[in-house]
Specification:
single chain; alpha/beta; Rossmann fold
Length: 237
């Protein structure tokens, strides 16, 4: 029987607090101003994304799409990632990345699991610039490539902080997989929407205790093989 398994990315598939922060560290910039404005309720997520892209382009006026993607290389992946995701794909399950994290890192992870189908524009697909499809469904934020290979001002905004549950619902309808056969894995309050839309919710490497109170189970050790064991036990039950 087929299940839908939805993963957050930062601190879950990636062993780093933020894929965005990883890139900022490489570029030696800080988005503290935008972060503080957002926390004060003075900036929405869409404007925060645009402000961050403006920050990058102001410091590096000549930066292009390929260069910015290169700064994502080397983002540390979570222990057990390949074993966990490989088992899910090999056993015919649907896997989604639903994250406000950096699109390029999600592309790198999902590209480990290529599809035999030629690339085509689809909901939940990856960038056509890389020429092949993935078996995953990918929903992330980041930037858009312009026709001349530059970086667009407005960015790629697919995932709202508190809107992940809606994406999961849409996947369930499109894939004809019910809530009872949906599993979600996240670390923070932003994943509670996914948790509520799942038959099994796993709080992995929790950021704080808020999602722990909502999740069905919590795994504090940073090893996705433990998540896989939890998924396997749920599926067998």
């Amino acid at each position: 029987m087929q299940y839908l398994i939805c993963f957050d990315m930062d601190r879950v598939l990636v062993d780093h607090m933020s894929t965005w922060q990883y890139v900022y560290d490489q570029l030696d910039i800080t988005n503290a101003e935008a972060f503080n404005l957002y926390n004060q309720g003075l900036l929405d997520e869409w404007d925060w994304l645009k402000m961050d892209l403006c920050l990058i382009k102001e410091k590096y006026p000549d930066i292009d799409d390929d260069t910015l993607r290169a700064y994502c290389e080397g983002t540390p992946l979570m222990d057990g990632l390949k074993e966990c995701l490989s088992w899910l794909i090999d056993n015919g399950h649907e896997v989604a990345i639903v994250s406000g994290g950096m699109q390029e890192t999600a592309r790198e992870i999902s590209s480990m699991f290529p599809s035999e189908k030629p690339w085509s524009k689809r909901w939940g697909g990856i960038n056509s610039h890389w020429g092949h499809e993935t078996l995953f469904h990918v929903f992330t934020n980041g930037w858009l490539r312009t026709n001349d290979g530059g970086i667009d001002d407005y960015g790629r905004y697919q995932v709202q902080m508190n809107g992940k549950g809606t994406i999961v619902q849409m996947l369930q309808r499109r894939l004809s997989i019910p809530l009872a056969r949906t599993i979600s894995i996240g670390d923070s309050a932003g994943d509670i929407g996914m948790f509520k839309q799942s038959g099994l919710s796993i709080c992995f490497n929790p950021w704080d205790e808020q999602p722990v109170a909502i999740a069905d189970t919590t795994i504090r050790d940073k090893d996705l093989c433990l998540v896989l064991k939890c998924i396997q036990d749920f599926i067998k039950a």
